Amino acid sequence: MVYWFGEPIRPxxxxxxxxxxxxALWGAGFVLAVLLLVAGIGVSRRSGEQLQEATRALxxxxxxxxxxxxxxxxxxxxxxxARSFAISGKQSHLNPFYTAAKSVxxxxxxxxxxxxxxxxxxxxxxxxxxxxxQHLKVMKDMVxxxxxxxxxxxxxxxxxxxxxxxMEQIRGALSSMEKEQRARLAQQQAKLAAKTDHVAxxxxxxxxxAGVLVLACAMATFGAVHRRRKADEKLDRxxxxxxxxxxxxxxxxxxxxxxxxxxxxxxxxDRELQGESMALLVPERFRQTQRQYYAGYFSQRSGRMxxxxxxxxxxxxxxxxxxxxxxxKPLALDxxxxxxxxxxxxxxxxxVEKQIxxxxxxxxxxAVELETANKELEAFSYSVSHDLRSPLQNIDSFSQILIExxxxxxxxxxxxxxxxxxxxxxxxxxxxxxxxxxxNMMRSELQIEAFDLSALANTVAADLKxxxxxxxxDWVIAEGLSVxxxxxxxxxxxxxxxxxxxxxxxxxxxxxxxxxxxxxxxxARTYFVRDDGAGFDMARAASLFTPFKRLHDQSEFRGTxxxxxxxxxxxxxxxxxxxxxxxxxxxxxxxxxxxDDGGAPNGRNHDSTxxx
Length: 612
What we know:
Blueprint: E1 3-4, E2 7-8, H1 10-17, H2 21-88, H3 94-114, H4 119-147, H5 156-223, H6 227-240, E3 245-249, E4 255-258, H7 260-266, H8 270-273, H9 284-299, E5 308-315, E6 321-333, E7 336-345, H10 347-405, H11 412-443, E8 449-452, H12 453-467, E9 473-477, E10 482-485, H13 487-504, E11 511-519, E12 525-531, H14 563-573, E13 578-583, E14 587-592
Parallel strand pairs: 9-11
Antiparallel strand pairs: 1-2, 3-4, 3-7, 5-6, 6-7, 8-10, 11-12, 12-14, 13-14
Helix pairs in contact: 1-2, 2-3, 2-4, 2-5, 3-4, 4-5, 5-6, 10-11, 11-14, 12-13, 13-14
């Protein structure tokens, strides 16, 4: 007994042998095609069920990975918020802490529920759960010390070290579970892809075989019995399943048959199109070209006829024009050759192409505008350097001559006025120098390299000490801070931040300036410069990094108002962020981060204790 996917077919073959004549033979072929099609549907159904099962397993693994990522993110937020509150005392850090800490236990329970069918991963989660609970307790103790302003004085190193160790255990365990789940996900994806290919192959092979047999039967019937009617019925079944408008065209360029999608595209029924020229489906200006195209297609008698694809304009029955793409392929028959033309409405694709073209033009325009702006910036720099500096130097020189040569002719008020005039000129020259430095910094190319940021900080601090060796300033600079960045530009950052701290602590009999970094849960670091000087009102903090927006009077603290704006530009060019916190007469803290071009944290993790 012969079987095809579990169904006996030998009785059908025996009955087929009893047929006589050409029509009977092709009729048996049609029966075989139907049997193959039915069997293929059964196999496709079983393969589809297996495909659904593999998809559910893949979805479950993705849910486990998402849950692991949520727990890791929440634990990181707990640690970051707790440390930020303990260091700064800002109440705004408490809400993220309590929200994150409250959400962790339910997330762990949800993950345990997801892993109920995975004993190995469930055991790993059960082992790390007490560590998570202990970490939450340590972070809560840190917040309570911060609430009582005791964090810097009592147990800060112990809590920091314990929290870091616990977090490392948690991160290691979650990372191990994540690697295991990702390996499982890769296997499931490969399995799903294999099943998908298998189903597609079965569907394609079955459809192709059944289609070939159906088409062969249709062509034979077209030449033997009930030639026109039978051919039309079989062609209609074949064409009706196509997603595009499909036309069968003979050597005269006349339409033999079309499918239902053709009527949707052009508005003509199959009966209306039969016997008509394909030129009917294009505007008048394209019809002669269309006729010549089909005539040339059939005129090639040597070898195989080519397969072509072209874009042109279609004409709907109601007169509406729309863009189409037409693919034409040969189809050989016993009584001659025909071609199949598949036509697709590409209005949506053309709209997308038009939008892309528009965006490209806008991009080119923006590039031109940017180039113009750069040239204007260069012209401005030249103007500032030459056209403004020269008059200022003249005013300053003549003012000095007045002081040196005509002092005996000026009274005390006159000499005071001249001194103020010179001071203003010198201040203006400082502003010009700062503007030129900012302009040059923005146009210079970044030179990224790894270097010792702590050593650079010590060098900048030593330069400030040399300028005023009599000042009593306690410098606390953390060691071992290595980064990847532009050393020259980051020196500008430290010079401005240290210079501000030096300037705004000038009224203190003994000042304190600190530089260090705090590790974040993702391995990045937040750098800070802290002083106990004049500080500032947080209500005006939004103006800190705006050029010429000064928070202190010029008579109290001299400055150009450009320094912090320059610092912000450098940090932004390193893809980082900068912010500040301060209290009037109690000092200020400037914090900044550095990231590489890919957005990943810059610099190696550093177990740094906040300065006391």
